[in-house]
Amino acid sequence: MTSAPHTPSFPRVPESADDVLAGLDPEQRAVATALHGPVCVLAGAGTGKTRALTHRIAYGVRTNRFQPTSVLAVTFTNRAAGEMRGRLRQLGAGGVQARTFHSAALRQLQYFWPKAVGGTLPRLVERKAQLVAEAGAACGIRLDRNQLRDATGEIEWAKVTQTVPGDYAESVAKSQRHAPRDPAELAQIYARYEQLKRDRGVIDFEDVLLLTIGILQDRRDIADHVRAQYQHFVVDEYQDVSPLQQRLLELWLGDRDSLCVVGDASQTIYSFTGATPEHLLNFRVRHPEATVVKLVRDYRSTPQIVHLANGLLSQARGRAADHRLELVSQRDTGPEPQHIEYGDEPSEAEGTARRIRDLIAAGVPAGEIAVLFRTNGQSGLYEQALTDAGVPYQLRGAERFFERREVREAQAALRGAARFGGNDAALDLADDLAPQVRAVLSASGWSAQAPVGSGASRDRWESLAALARLAEDFGTAQPDASLADFVTELDERAASQHAPTVQGVTLASLHAAKGLEWDAVFLVGLTEGMMPITYARTDEQLEEERRLLYVGITRARFRLTLSWSLSRAPGGRAHRVPSRFLKDLRGASATRGASSVSVSVAGTGGTPAGIGAPRRGPRKPIRCRTCGRSLTDAGEMKLMRCEGCPSDMDEGVYERLHTWRAAEAERLGQPSYCVFTDKTLMAIAEQLPEDEPGLSRIAGVGVRKFRRYGADVLAICAGQEGASGAGES
Q1: Is 90 exceeded by the pLDDT of residue 562?
Q2: What is the pLDDT at residue 46?
Q3: Residue 20 in contact with residue 54, Cβ under 8 Å?
Q4: d(Cα 115, Cα 714) in Å, to the nearest integer?
């Protein structure tokens, strides 16, 4: 095996061109010496593509094949461009331009605008949200903060895919894209947004590319000037190029062929922004004479991790899968990736935090550990678990859970409801903590049904859904808890996470982790519905989810842990299943994580993991009235029987209760569950209480609901018609 070449912080500049090639493996050397004609480098994760690219440019400069100022290297982030410039200086190739597409285009636009158009370049609007909001208002469409982000994202997607407002709805349908709202409305907003920009004489970042393309197309003299300046082009992460960026690249290049592109179709994970691997996959079709080099020697990850990554891609389908690279690890052997199954989400978070704490105690720096998840809404549980374990962390690519605007607004609404909710009919109808919290969140626009697709609205929903789940767990741990108690719990949690920013374990979404790497990586929440995400339905969308998991796996150098939980809350029904992508990948390393709560709340009064509530005294177990088994699931406890045990429900009574509940809910203008949940109606129809004590013993029939609906329910159980509205008003 070949170890990864060690690079000191300040290496000496190579004395000769041949020295530039020193330390490169055979494939990297082939890239560095391929200085003529089109070159396509297919580079897998961890194979040293940036090293190969920079050494190719430096070798071309040091052999006088390239003039430094004639080379334009294009990357996708300012960080990557800065890293490339630094490496080139260390290799004696200073003066090479390494920029993003937007940065390079903006410089050209600023320089040529007076000549091509006259006057000064219009002001660049760095944040287009305000204009989008005005465009929505002009169309009679009010956009909240998250809808505004989603609409802005759709406009950006339309522009990078060269879609005009009139074609937007058709393009959405054709691409099977999940628009965050009615495409016709978004097309209206898009058209008005463009008009507002013209009226005010401003441009946005996408216009920078569009206008540069327009000038290069219309003014041959300017195009010739640019082509005389830049004669050699290098494009990194070519699988992420959008149609707009590809068109600009073609205009820069003209009829020449001095182009080197580097990419990996198996790492295409940004199609929602307009990125497509088709340009990479079609490169040899457009350039039949191209030199093609494959980099498959993985210097980042151990053979065990590489084997798992290869196994995941071996199941892939589609055109990108046909061009997958089989990586070969160059590192010494390491531990097998661990597959861990937990009983519930809090146990998964606490188990992950314990393992991280043990790694740090064993000498692994906290900064070399990462916890990666599919959505930012999953971060809160891990923030709390790491805080409880005394492990420092940093959140990448998102605000901390309790610092998110929607969470802060929800806390304020809950605090107000706790103080002044006595006059709120919705709260009056919900006598348990969880329904009360859901009612407050619903008043803020949240619903139990997740929005379709991704985007800001989905992120907001995930954050509020996490609060709703937390309320359920807190209410289970403390059945007598009030809304004020829950607000206090939230305040304490928020306060505990307001410590100064420190270097620590990285928490990040899989998308935000692209381009990074750590010694130890924990991939969490790998269940169906989360990985792949529930709104990924087409074959193309599902394959992109697979690639997203591949990116996560290949972030790990030495240790990798993949985990999932069978239920959401402690004692909940274990209805979840591991991600389909893990099928056939789980070997002898698969284990079951120890739950942080060994017995259910119903059995011991113990506190669910992560709630932080004090323990209550022992409580008599609730047992199935049919088989005698101890019950842990909230729904089963309400029915007083196991889900699998036969039901002795009186169907007639259940139907009458169902009809009565619907009428009562309509009369009150409230959802049906605010009267009684389905499980409570079922429990009543099974137990058929004959008197007030019998009805009040049924879970879900609290004091207020008994006073309000008791007479009606007992009348229906006795075979009479319920006197709707006869109870307490």
Answers
A1: yes
A2: 92
A3: no
A4: 86
C-alpha–C-alpha distance, residues 79 and 85, integer Å: 10
pLDDT band at 422 (very low <50, low <70, confident <90, very high): low
Under a CB-based contact definition with an 8 Å cutoff, are residues 56 and 220 in contact? no
How much of the chain, in percent, has pLDDT values that exceed 90? 34
What DSSP assignment string belongs to 48-95?
-HHHHHHHHHHHHHHTTSS-GGGEEEEESSHHHHHHHHHHHHHTT-TT
Rama region for 569: left / alpha / beta (φ>0; ψ in -120 to 50; rest):
beta
Cβ proximity of 188 and 138 under 8 Å: no
Tell me how crowded residue 401 is: count the other CB atoms within 10 A of its CB: 24
State how far the Cα of 252 lies from the Cα of 217, in Å rounded to an integer. 10
CA distance 441 to 472: 13
CA 82 to each of CA 31, 78, 260, 635: distance values in angstroms, whole numbers, following the listed order? 21, 6, 19, 56
Distance CA 420, CA 331 (A): 63
Q: Per the structure block, which two tokens stand in for 31? A: 């890239």
537-546 tens-digit pLDDT: 788 889 989 9
Q: Report pLDDT digits (tens) over 158-193.
A: 998 889 999 999 988 888 787 888 889 999 999 999
Residue 69 main-chain phi, psi, to 5 deg = -75, -5
Length of the chain: 729
295-304 per-position pLDDT tens digit = 999 999 999 9
**What does the alpha-carbon distance between residue 536 and residue 453 come to, in Å, rounded to a whole number?**
8
Say if residues 350 and 473 touch (Cβ distance below 8 Å). Answer: no
**266: DSSP letter:** G
Bridge pairing between strands 97-100 and 71-75: parallel
| Closest-CA residue to 46 (of 531, 435, 544, 554) | 554
What's 16's DSSP letter? S
H/E stretch holding 233: strand 232-235
Ranges 95-99, 114-118, 555-559, 623-627: which has the least confidence: 623-627
With residues binned 3-state (H G I as helix, E B as strand, rest as coil), the percentages for the chain, rounded to 5, are 50, 10, 40
The tens digit of pLDDT for each residue in 291-338 reads: 999 999 999 999 999 999 999 998 888 887 778 889 999 999 999 999
Dist. CA 442–CA 426, nearest whole Å:
10
- Using DSSP's 3-state secondary structure scheme, residue 25 falls into coil
CA-based nearest residue to 124, from 204, 213, 214, 206: 204
Give per-residue pLDDT as tens, 61-94: 989 999 999 999 998 888 788 788 888 888 888 8
The span from the CA of 622 to the CA of 610, in Å, is: 24
Q: What is the mean pLDDT of residues 4-22?
A: 67
Question: Could you report how far apart the first and last alpha carbons of the chain are, in Å?
Answer: 79
- Give the model's pLDDT for residue 193: 92
Residues facing residue 216 across a β-bridge? none
List the beta bridge partners of residue 99: 74
Q: Which of 123-132, 187-196, 344-353, 354-363 has the lowest mean pLDDT?
A: 123-132
